[in-house]
Amino acid sequence: MNRAGAIKPESDQILDRPMGDNDGIDFEIIELLFFAYRDFISDPDAILDTSGFGRAHHRVVHFVNREPGLTVAALLDTLKITKQSLARVLKQLIDSGYIAQVAGPEDRRQRRLFPTDRGRELALALARPQSRRIANALEGMDENGRTAVTTFLSGMINPGAHRPEEDHSEINEGRDQ
Amino acid sequence: MNRAGAIKPESDQILDRPMGDNDGIDFEIIELLFFAYRDFISDPDAILDTSGFGRAHHRVVHFVNREPGLTVAALLDTLKITKQSLARVLKQLIDSGYIAQVAGPEDRRQRRLFPTDRGRELALALARPQSRRIANALEGMDENGRTAVTTFLSGMINPGAHRPEEDHSEINEGRDQ
DNA sequence: CAAATATGTCAGCTATGTTGACATAATTTG
DNA sequence: CAAATTATGTCAACATAGCTGACATATTTG
Predict the structure, then answer these.
(1) Is the CB atom of residue B169 positioned under 7 angstroms from any atom of strand D?
(2) Which residues of A fall within a CB distance of 8 Å from B92?
(3) Domains annotated on chain A, with CATH
(4) Rounded to the nearest 10 degrees, what angle do helices B143-156 and A143-155 cross at?
(5) End-to-end CA distance of chain A
(6) pLDDT-derived band of residue B12, with 50, 70 and 90 as boundaries?
């Protein structure tokens, strides 16, 4: 390779027409989702930089605050990560007093997770700018429009997905290793 | 600490009421966005696992296909990552024949990026399931509803953001290091 | 009691981002 | 033209957040 990379095309088939418009693919919404999510997540990122936490902590703090007393297994299922991956961030959050563990009242093997005051405050601080951004994007939209937005977003989610306040009944399947 | 972590609450202030409903924060859409994006990105992830590529490659292949001939600087600006971070994945994509570089016709310092046939095919293969998911989520929605969705997503994006086919004129500001 | 379950933990690996420093070629400017 | 700036590449070191595999401990269940 030359010093600054290949200069000439390697006589490969090079395409210079933009992708899109031709095929029946919705590139517009694909990209809107990419940019929307990127900016949506950047709000809390800025706050997290201050606290020394990252996105992983954000998610944990969020869901523990949304469903206090949820088990580690339920949290893993929501986040779709492994317990080893969760362990690091959870330990940090517990050690710094944002989340507390309590042995399950029925099943004492469980560690039920609760937010502390601090944890609640952090979760709210992180949610606030995101909610503001959402309110701004919904501004001037009528009820039909808002319904369309939530219908669309719900329709993007996998049917069997485990979301809070849903199917708590089924037996565990996978991802726990 | 005990072998399996703290068992009893450290007499900290523990909260057992779910967050939400109380404050004026839109937790519903916050979570819908999280789950929607998580599942939206999982479709191409499965394909990428096969090719040995990751999400970073996906983004590069996507934008190069959407705007063939874009410069490295423009790509960095779109992705909002550093050139060192881009370098790794871009090199892999070039070495394996998905993307080709051509010296800029006007400014020969530039390396304009083009997809090869292979690169075009990969980008289409990755976009197809995402587009299918979107079509599914929009199904049965009238024109007003669809407009509401794109209006909402556009409204979530930072105003000054650099998106393809937009402001090519301004001078560089930051992120290049 | 034995097996299964919920959780924790150690060790090592990968992907993708970061900063800092420096190099080269080409363009622009004084 | 020489100097400065620009576009890009590259080396090195590091951080975060995932992953797999293996094993330990406490508790519940059959």
Answers:
(1) no
(2) none
(3) 27-155 (1.10.10.10)
(4) 80
(5) 44
(6) low
